[in-house]
Q: What sequence folds into this?
């Protein structure tokens, strides 16, 4: 009796696991792994950003990435997905998938529709989280949550529709394999606008603002590179040759960027920094993202090497200005994304991608199309981000006060600290206003 029952349960289980018509098992397996890899990138970003700020803001900075998993993730499932991938017009998807209506186990390409939803959701999450790098150490957490949620719905989702969801840039022939325009230019420009709207940190330009934990940043960069294999390789949406090409290019391009960046550091100062190495890896990954499945491995090396120069020198220039893009999101993601998107129009090769050639292979028009896509992404992201920040600012203050900045956003926004000294650096009252510390020992960071 027991054996028969177990056999019956097994039979029911196997029947429940049957794939819908058109769904491929190997493709589904690869996309399950890729989705998990991309989701890992958001906690990885938390470590990358968290190590670059002062210790009194470490938790707040990391929380800015972690909460994107919730606020952007839920928003994506309920509304963002249908705005991006619902059947609609050239500018916006329809509401056919509102509240996950019609998203089940049926085939979407060669994978279950619900898996496609999840994979694309991980992109929305990390793109919104990237913007936080320009807002750290001074933005109030409630205002950030409101902005983050709205930005994922009304800036990210429409731009994703333009390129990947049947919108006008995709119809124009813009090449963006895994998010050069949709993710990196979008986030980089939004970060630039956010830094301008918020203004500089109170200590910016008056005292050294140094990373508190560079090993965290190196760990974050390593995990980002690991996750990026799913980010780029998974964007083939199948376990096929295109995924293999994107996978290889994701290994090669950042290696070339790191090599060139290290040489630039050595030539300029005689020292190669760890923060520079972590930054170089991310810039190389950003630059190859739009090109990953469209160019040869040799071209990926060239893209990675070339991308080091504009991001490196924009970063140096920014540090000499009053623009407090705290963690250089624009130099890394904005400039890196623009460089990669344009170079895709130069190095794309139909022999490798089966889709289109670029400038070097007889199709100069592709570079022009890439430039149009870049311009559209820059303008929409800038205007949309500015409008949303102003809207949120009408509802709640965007910036922490000078005293809150001085104490640190870990205590004032979260009531806890990343690190303690002895019995604790700051005694947080159990009631009352935690923004004013009850105790601050000698030597505590102001």
A:
């Amino acid at each position: 009796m027991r054996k028969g029952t177990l056999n019956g349960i097994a039979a029911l289980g196997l029947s429940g696991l049957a794939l819908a018509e058109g769904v491929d098992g190997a493709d589904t397996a690869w996309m399950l792994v890729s989705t998990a890899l991309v989701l890992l990138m958001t906690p990885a970003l938390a470590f990358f950003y968290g190590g670059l700020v002062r210790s009194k803001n470490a938790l707040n900075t990391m929380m800015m990435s972690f909460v994107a998993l919730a606020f952007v993730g839920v928003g994506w499932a309920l509304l963002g997905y249908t705005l991006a991938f619902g059947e609609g017009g050239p500018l916006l998807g329809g509401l056919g998938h509102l509240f996950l209506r019609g998203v089940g186990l049926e085939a979407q390409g060669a994978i279950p529709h619900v898996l496609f939803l999840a994979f694309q959701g991980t992109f929305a999450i990390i793109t919104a989280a990237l913007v936080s790098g320009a807002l750290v150490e001074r933005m109030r957490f409630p205002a950030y949550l409101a902005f983050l949620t709205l930005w994922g719905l009304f800036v990210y989702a429409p731009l994703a529709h333009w390129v990947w969801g049947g919108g006008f840039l995709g119809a124009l022939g813009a090449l963006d394999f895994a998010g050069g325009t949709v993710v990196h230019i979008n986030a980089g420009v939004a970060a630039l606008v956010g830094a301008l709207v918020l203004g500089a940190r109170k200590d910016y330009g008056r005292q050294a603002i140094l990373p508190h934990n560079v090993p965290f940043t190196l760990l974050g960069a390593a995990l980002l590179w690991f996750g990026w294999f799913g980010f780029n390789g998974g964007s083939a949406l199948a376990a096929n040759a295109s995924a293999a090409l994107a996978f290889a290019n994701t290994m090669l391009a950042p290696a070339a960027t790191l090599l060139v960046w290290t040489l630039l550091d050595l030539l300029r100062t005689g020292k190669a920094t760890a923060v520079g190495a972590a930054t170089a890896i991310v810039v190389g990954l950003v630059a190859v993202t739009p090109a990953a499945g469209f160019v040869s491995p040799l071209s990926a090396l060239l893209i990675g090497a070339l991308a080091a120069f504009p991001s490196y020198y924009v970063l140096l220039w920014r540090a000499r200005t009053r623009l407090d893009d705290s963690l250089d999101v624009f130099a890394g993601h904005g400039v890196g994304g623009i460089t990669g998107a344009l170079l895709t129009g130069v190095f794309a090769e139909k022999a490798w991608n089966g889709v289109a050639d670029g400038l070097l292979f007889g199709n100069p028009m592709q570079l022009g199309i890439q430039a149009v896509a870049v311009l559209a992404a820059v303008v929409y992201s800038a205007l949309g981000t500015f409008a949303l920040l102003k809207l949120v600012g009408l509802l709640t203050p965007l910036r922490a006060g000078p005293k809150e900045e001085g104490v640190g956003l870990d205590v004032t926004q979260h009531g806890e600290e990343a690190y303690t000294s002895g019995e604790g650096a700051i005694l947080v009252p159990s009631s009352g206003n935690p923004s004013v510390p009850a105790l601050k020992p000698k030597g505590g960071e102001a």
Q: What stands out?
A: The first strand starts at residue 107 and ends at 108. Residues 1-15, 434-446 have pLDDT under 50 and may be disordered. The radius of gyration is 23 Å. Residues 358 and 364 are 6 Å apart (CA to CA).
